[in-house]
User: Fold this.
Amino acid sequence: MACRLNVSLFLWLLLVICEAGRQMSKLSNKKLCADSECSHPILIARATQDYYPADCRFIPIRQGQLVYVYSMLKDRGNLFWAGSVQGSYYGEQEARIGHFPSSVVEELQPLMPANTEVKTTKWDFYCD
Assistant:
């Protein structure tokens, strides 16, 4: 009986650990970036409206927030960009990179050209 309980507990813990992160479907197979690692922002944009994400691949954006854009999806996902937002004062919201519709922002300041085409990986659409 104790052995069966231990096995059940182990399987339950394993299930919880495995469900902590999950792979979501890819929005696109390619993206445009400023460099091969997409580590430099392409542009700064301002949100023209609030955006409430559908799932964990996306980030919430409030109207007026500045968004640092790091990549622009290509092909079937060309309506989505990836970037990070900060709150109105430092520390209000930790910066997190996620996707959002390009239609909810206006471009303010170009920083670097997005001339580098990069293949997306499963980690581009992974959820914690």
Residues 5-20 have pLDDT under 50 and may be disordered. The helical segments are 2-18.
